[in-house]
Amino acid sequence: MQHRARVTLRRTVVAGLVAIAVASLALIAAVNFGRARSPFPEPPAGKPILHVQATRAEPGRTTELEAWVNLSTGEGKVIEHAAGGGLQRVELVQDGEYLLYLADAAHVVRWHNLDPNSPLRGRLLDELMGVRLAVEEGRAQIIGSGTDGGRQTVRVRFTTAEGSAVVATLDAENGLIMRAESSQGQQREVVDITYHTIEYLAPEQVPPDLAAVPIPAGASTEEYWDRALNTQALNLSYDVYVANLGSPPLATFRRVSNSSGVTTDRVYVIYRTASGEVQVISGSGPDQPGQMPGDQAPGVVEVAGTRWHVETGPGGVQGSARLGKTVVTITAPDMELFRRAASTLRLCRP
Amino acid sequence: MWNILTRVLAATTLTVLMFAVRQQEQTKADLNFNGYLWDCSPSYCALKDPINVLFDVNGTLSNTLNEVRTHLGWSSTSGANLKFVDHGQLEDPQAQYASGCTLCSRYHARYNQGNDNGGPGWGIWTMAPVHYEIVTPCGHVTTTFDGARNYVKNKFANSGHHPTGFYWKGNTQASQQCDGSWVAGDGYFAYIDIL
């Protein structure tokens, strides 16, 4: 009896050990296989920052690019100049913020308080490494290899989300795009990128003023805050309204200052419903005009004692009302949802 | 005496100016187009770009595109077939022009000529939702409507041949981009006189 129990125990232990070993091997294989699927080498240890200087030639336009991008975090900066000319674009990702400065428009876009999953955090990686990432994620297929200017290359094919067929040539050493040919219908475009500098840097090797962006005093700014309802310090001149539509809202705060220093802002609270999206927009005005959307003249709809100027268009219903010091605009895919949103409006208190 | 005369003159000037502005705005308000582009399936239209530039006076599509090539240096491109709404009718873009290639960050706009003459305030007009877009794994993502509109307006204004200004349309709704982000315009379109 004791012998049988010992044998059973021994078998159980052996089976357990085998199971653990198999699981471990599978895990190691999965991790290594996952890594092995990337045909591009990792950056040198301790030097996660890719620094490039390049010339990009496309039909009718040539630009000079310089970029520093931390391949681990996605943080960094891209600067674009017109060939032999002035600054055109600066993009900066740092400390949970995204900045785009369009020098030729004298306009700045800033996103603050970025959601941890915000795609803007990976924006610079997309700019430099978008095709390499597509290969590693299986969205692009390797169709060949070769050499270009003495460098080993990988040829890749993919289709963009908008339907353009693209064949790209990547540097096999790092995955940087050297050439891309895209075609859609009769239109065909070729972009060539020539790199003058490709180096990996340690964090202490990047310029100390990397985060500085030369924005002139008269530039207009457009700022967004992710997760705006959790932000305590919006300091608004109006109230923020929310509706109760049975789903958690997504909120974005937007503030615009034009070159004359005039500032307008609005809080967008957006709900997803089975019928489509509903927006509750709070601001200080001006009121919505009479001629939109579409042909129909605005009507007046009374909901819970409030008179709403309501219009219909191809996307549904839009109505505005002044509630105290706030102009509230509600957009909804149909009148029923508009009424539900309007009847459940309440002040938002963070 | 001079003081009274100055005040009367100032008041008269102000009244005339306000009347002129009011008259112009009343005439301009007659334009009847929807403030957004729409991405339409058979059952539903999703809101996209706000229409933020209007080429007026002699703004036929052909004249507009000539001026766009001359002052902006943009060239013909392709893009999604989003719909305009003119007098309640869904209409396709008649042209698309951009400052850069399909795989590049760039300014981009679709164009559609209005279905009627907008009267003495507007004349023949073509509308354009202008934006600046970046390339992402899901496709082009607009990062600003206002910045792109200001860029186009300033380029034409600085040429010295095109009077420009802003007009309140109220198209402030945010549109969701393919990467999940939301971007909105400030509700004004820039008008650019094509003379």
From TrEMBL, chain A:
What keywords were assigned to this record?
A: Membrane, Transmembrane, Transmembrane helix
Residue ranges annotated as transmembrane are 12-33
Q: Does the keyword Membrane apply?
A: yes
Protein name (database record): MucB/RseB N-terminal domain-containing protein
Q: What species is this protein from? A: Thermorudis peleae
